[in-house]
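User: I'm new to structure prediction. If I give you an amino acid sequence, what do you actually give back? Let's try with this one:
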Amino acid sequence: MRYSRQRELILKKVNAMHNHPTAEEIYEAAGKESPGLSLGTVYRNLNVLADAGMIRRVSIPGKADRFDHTLQQHSHRYCTVCGGVDDIALNDAAIMEIVKRGDDTAQDYSLVVFGTCEQCRKKAGM
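Assistant: Good question. You get back a string of structure tokens that encode the predicted 3D arrangement of the chain. For your 126 residues, that looks like this:
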């Protein structure tokens, strides 16, 4: 992968943002430092960084992809109230064992749990 100042800036923003940002959120944050940056450039570089294993893509059906700086295997919760994404602790080894039972070629998995985040539960008095 060739070096690019724009790619470095985008990676820096993903690493600094701990809220699993969308490409648009990264574009907004990076645009403050690089006003000429285009949304297309952000998307292209996020794809390159994800393909290179430097960031993780968090895909949520029917929603914009999110990007995560944490590279080790972990699961996510999508809050159906506020739309936020956060890390959740699950028994990842047990999940991978289930995945491998169905297909010996499985190497990885992505699990998104749909529910309500702690902040939204507190607001609702749950």
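You can read the tokens as a compact description of the fold. Here is one thing that stands out. The chain has a mean pLDDT of 90.
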